[in-house]
Amino acid sequence: MLKSRLKTTALLSLFILSFSTIAASNKVTVFQCANKNHKMVNVSLQDGIYTYRFGKTNQQPDIELHRSPEQLSHRFNNISAAETDTGKAQIRELNFKNGDFIYTVTSSELGTKYVASVDVYKKEMLLTSIKCQPDTIVDHLSGYLFDLPEADS
What we know:
Elements: H1 2-25, E1 28-34, E2 39-46, E3 49-56, E4 63-67, E5 72-80, E6 88-98, E7 101-110, E8 113-122, E9 125-131, E10 138-139
Keywords: Signal
């Protein structure tokens, strides 16, 4: 009986370990969108590494960054916002640093209005803001931010 129980426990442990390994190796889209010029932003997570890609749709990316969770930062704000139709807003940001540059992926629920964008900063100066086309947005940021370091205010 004890031998049978040990064998069952060992098999169950092996199954659970195998399932977590398979799940950890799957590529997950954390965020994705395209702008009006058909440039695509994609943030994915695979094997514990976040990848930021930006470039023309269906072409090699213009930029590709790979970062561990410790190399990223995030900001989440859940605020009262009188100028929205519901009086509430949620803003999520994920920051990829690359030398003097920071690529900030933002998704915002401003009342019932939803917007997403990517801002590019150099030494804290905004260089450009890329507005996402609403029908191209895939946003799972809220499920991944809280395991990442918070951005400095």
